[in-house]
Structure formats: C-alpha cells, structure tokens
Amino acid sequence: MTTCARILILAALAQDTRLAIYRLLVQQGAEGLAVGQIGERLAVANATLSFHLKELSHAGLILSRQEGRFIYYSANYEQMNVLLGFLTENCCRGEACTPANNVSPCDGAC
Fold first, then answer.
1. Which residues pair with 67 in a beta bridge?
2. Model pLDDT, residue 36
3. What is the mean pLDDT of each run of 10 residues along the chain (110 residues)?
4. Residue closest to 25 by CA, chosen among 66, 78, 63, 79
5. What pLDDT score does 107 carry?
6. What HEC string does the chain produce?
7. Is residue 20 a contact partner of residue 26, using CB atoms and an 8 Å limit?
8. Could you give the dihedral angle defined by the CA atoms of residues 100, 101, 103 and 107, in that order, rounded to the nearest 10 degrees?
9. What is the pTM of this model?
10. Is the distance from CB of 30 to CB of 24 less than 8 angstroms?
11. Integer Cα distance of 17 and 4 in angstroms
C-alpha cells in the first residue's frame, strides 16, 4: 500500500459520519447492510449518506453489491487489515504490546 493510499484511507475515516458508517459496517460482518438500513440506524439523510458512502468506497474501505433493487455495503476487511498492519508495524520495539486499560485518546472534546 502506497503512502498516498494510506493517507486517503485515514482521511476518509477522519470525519464523524464516515467513521460511524464504517464502524457500523465492521460490526455487521460480511453480509453488510442495505443503504436504507444504514441511513435509518445512523439517522443520516439519503443525499448525505450517498456522499459518505462514495468517499469510503473510493478509499477502498467498503465494498458494494447489488441484490435486486437494493445496494448492500460491507466493510472491506482485507483493506482494514492492511491498514492495521501498517499502523502497528514495528510496534513496541518488537516486544509484545499491552494496551493501557485506562487511557483514552479523546478527552471528550471530539
């Protein structure tokens, strides 16, 4: 994965609605959700949802498939794993990583 591709993926996730969509799709598994279901669960208008799905798709984070007249979206787990591998590459100086239990990256200002 190129540096430009990594930046594109991270930029796509650096927006609250897109992050919420992506997290929802990751939780749904391989079958994903129909566009209408995504909009209902996240209370996002159709036009807004379409824009954000396009951005996530362009970054390669989600996949789409059509079944009849419905379009279903699911997380692209392969792309997610590549990004996670990059982010954790050379982690902890080669030692086992143990996350701190009480550390929060956000102090509530997000």
1. 70
2. 96
3. 91 97 97 97 96 97 96 96 89 70 55
4. 63
5. 54
6. CCHHHHHHHHHHHCCHHHHHHHHHHHHHCCCCEEHHHHHHHHCCCHHHHHHHHHHHHHCCCEEEEEECCEEEEEECHHHHHHHHHHHHCCHHHHCCCCCCCCCCCCCCCC
7. no
8. 160
9. 0.82
10. no
11. 22
Cβ–Cβ < 8 Å for 27, 109: no
Tokens representing 6 are 């990594």
Sheet arrangement for strand 70-75: 33-34, 70-75, 62-67
HSE at residue 87, side-chain half, CA atoms within 13 A, is 10
Q: CA-to-CA distance for 84 and 50, rounded, in angstroms? A: 26
How many angstroms separate the CA atoms of 30 and 100, rounded? 30
In Å, how far are 30, 31, 52, 56 from 15, measured between CA atoms?
23, 24, 9, 11
